[in-house]
Design brief:
It is a single chain. The protein has a single domain (28-256), classed as Glycerol uptake facilitator protein (Up-down Bundle), CATH 1.20.1080. The chain is mainly alpha-helical. The chain has helices at 3-17, 27-37, 42-61, 64-73, 76-88, 92-119, 127-130, 137-154, 163-171, 174-185, 189-216, 227-256. Helices cover 77% and strands 0% of the residues. The chain starts with a helix and ends with a helix. The protein has twelve helices and no strands.
Length: 257
């Protein structure tokens, strides 16, 4: 075999090793999985409230193990991935519905945490609570690559992957919302702003990375965008990414100086 042929063979092996389409599920199955995961049902809402109370207790008692358990049972990530599907498929009514659903989940989650911390006799902020009030660019990296891993796991043929639980722990969507509840219950505006920003950072960059992978997988669109519409859509995504990331970059600058 010539050197050129060996190089071509090696390139083909590398391409296959990192190919996202080799073992991906069908477009229909991906759609069904993501949209089912993003449904707002009575069961999901009850599980979410339970997860919020568990996470709040963990934060209140400074228990990392309890917080991790709460993150594993929270259904919030499903709404973010379903929103990403609506975004990539250009189904804007679907995107709007799932964003509204996500807003409902966030509102109920913060309300549940607020009630818990209002009633809790432990008012002093713990280390775990304070850790959710100072987001930085490192949190962007965790959310982005966690989102990549999550959506890749959700779009595989094999349904038994263990990626989603790991992503749920790494990206930590629930603890910042619990911290928002603590801040509201105890009148801590500084903690509310920090924790709220951390949740937005995590949710947006999971959404962004999921949208990128679904685009690579060529998810079919409900309608073809014109060149002008595509440019406008791309501009909004780039603009939003920069605006959301800027405070975290500034935070890292002050951390190292």
């Amino acid at each position: 075999m010539s050197l050129k042929e060996q190089n071509e063979t090696m390139k083909e092996k590398v391409r296959k090793a990192f190919s996202l389409s080799e073992d991906s599920a069908s477009h229909e199955e991906i759609r069904e999985r993501l949209l089912d995961g993003g449904k707002i049902t009575g069961t999901n809402m009850c599980v979410m409230v339970c997860a919020m109370i568990i996470a709040s207790v963990g934060l209140n008692m400074n228990s990392t193990a309890v917080i991790i358990g709460a993150m594993l049972i929270s259904p919030i990530m499903g709404s973010i991935l379903a929103s990403a599907y609506g975004n990539v498929s250009a189904d804007y009514s679907l995107l709007r519905n799932h964003l509204i659903g996500l807003g409902m989940q966030v509102g109920i989650s913060v309300a549940a945490a607020t009630i818990y911390f209002f009633l809790s006799p432990v008012k002093e902020p713990t280390v775990e609570l304070l850790a959710r009030t100072s987001p930085s660019f490192y949190d962007v990296l965790i959310a982005f690559f966690g989102g990549l891993a999550g959506i890749i796991g959700q779009t595989r043929i094999d349904k038994t992957n263990t990626v989603i639980p790991g992503v749920a722990i790494a990206t930590a969507l629930m603890p910042p919302l619990c911290t928002c509840g603590y801040a509201i219950a105890n009148g801590r505006l500084d903690m509310l702003l920090g924790a709220g920003y951390l949740f937005i950072l995590n949710a947006y960059f999971i959404f962004l990375s999921a949208s990128m992978i679904l685009t690579i997988l060529k998810i079919p669109k409900t309608k073809e965008l014109t060149e002008k519409e595509w440019r406008r859509h791309r501009f909004r995504m780039v603009r939003n990414t920069i605006l959301i990331a800027i405070p975290s970059i500034v935070a890292v600058y002050f951390m190292v100086h």
